[in-house]
């Protein structure tokens, strides 16, 4: 049997109460990221890696949550979808800017949001603000990892299509989306005339409601007749969300640990976070489709373009922080030794 892509069949709801109401994996991903961050903050306080006290972890985390959600949502609107600011609906939450459950969060906007709120929190609690940015950088990798997994579960931020010569026998790690039928085929019937005619025999067995949405639902539910018919017709895509989950999560996490293995001047770790994250975004965006309606700039996607500035800012900040005459803080080597000793 020839190799073939994974056929996307994931339900975005972990617990579904009605057609549109329930606990989504997307929300659970954010909860997992925040809980992991809280545990890391408490651990760093207990092991004296940071002057942050363990009991302050919850307060700081709440501030970070506000920064991520507000900054991420506003950033998405500013960078990718300005229409959400003036789009209103007849159902809750009525304003599209508040409809986070629909997806649409900018990681670059979230970083800016965290930067703003953490600078305020550090000043209020008399903790070096650049050091707090270092701490947040270390906590960010798990959250980014879970967020990219949520993008995959939500079937959003698709990768680019595999090259034509790979479509006839796509590798197992690529992915096919049944919603391509409703999102691509029926919108471009001339371009997909062959595919649409090939699925017509299924019309007699798919009853009730609209044919194409029901066909997608049957494929996602595992109807083998439908799956066997549409699988060879669907496009195979790069799973860019999973590529970015790996680079934004484990790889970024390991990089930060290596940078902060020994104490560093406040701000140095956050600087290298921006540099490493920016580089990984530029590399992995090669496999990701540009956002719909968002033009490229100098051949770069919006995410790549913003990442260039992130890298430049990170390198500049690293140079400035390294030159400051301040006490070095942190150092995971000390924290791990303390953990083993206890």
Chain-wise SSE layout:
Blueprint: E1 6-7, E2 13-16, E3 22-24, H1 25-46, H2 57-79, H3 107-125, H4 129-153, H5 164-167, E4 175-176, H6 180-185, H7 193-198, H8 211-221, H9 224-230, H10 240-259, H11 268-284, H12 302-322, H13 332-341
Parallel strand pairs: 1-4
Antiparallel strand pairs: 2-3
Helix pairs in contact: 1-2, 1-4, 2-3, 3-4, 4-10, 4-11, 8-9, 10-11, 11-12
Search tags:
mainly alpha; two-stranded parallel ribbon; 13 helices; 4 strands
Q: Could you say which overall geometry the principal axes of the C-alpha atoms support?
A: elongated
Q: What percentage of residues falls in helices of 4 or more residues?
A: 55-70%
Q: Reading side by side through the largest sheet, how are the strands ordered?
A: 1-4
Strand element count: 4
Number of domains: 2
Termini gap: 55 Å
Q: Please indicate the percent range of residues in DSSP E strands (runs of 2 or more).
A: under 5%
Radius of gyration: 23 Å
| Tally of DSSP helical segments | 13
**Unreliable sequence segments:** none
Give the overall average pLDDT: 87
Largest sheet: 2 strands, parallel
Which structural category do the helix and sheet elements fall into? Answer: mainly alpha
Order of helices and strands: EEEHHHHHEHHHHHHHH
